[in-house]
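This section describes the prediction task in plain terms. A model, or a person checking by hand, is given the sequence of a single protein chain and must write out its three-dimensional structure as a string of tokens. No templates, partner chains or ligands are provided. The sample shown here is typical of the held-out split.
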Amino acid sequence: MVQLNFLIIALAALIPLAIGFIWYMPQVFGNAWMKASNMNEEQMKGANMLLIFGLTYILGFMASMALSAMVIHQFAIGSILAETAGIKDPSSEVGMWLTDFMNKYGNNFRTFKHGVFHGVIAGIFFVTPVIAVNAMFERKGFKYIAINAGFWMVCLALMGGVICQFN
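The expected answer:
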């Protein structure tokens, strides 16, 4: 069965921090984001950045864990067979079948490109609707939605690529 590589998950969790550093720079989308979110320099100064960065990493780790199930299709076979008798015994009938299956198909769709594809799909069909619903109730405009959803699409694409290729 496919095993999670927690080092890769932990490294992928750094991607939102790295992309955020670039994405929200004033020269990129920072000024537009501040205007769209009704923020100003004074509000930005009082933040506990250690707490924000720490929580961003923890939440990025959680997103990486969830994303791994989306980008690595071989996890599905394990979840389907999880309660099957003999699944953990490689010499059982199901254990031998699973070993044979993984030997034949265990590396299918395990590319950076495939992970990027699923990361973008997650960004479009999951993250964007969540951000858009919150933005509508907060009375934020399209630019706010586009900046934040775009950020997460790029992050999830890169995270998905790394997880799929190296996990």
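For orientation: The two ends are 12 Å apart (CA to CA).
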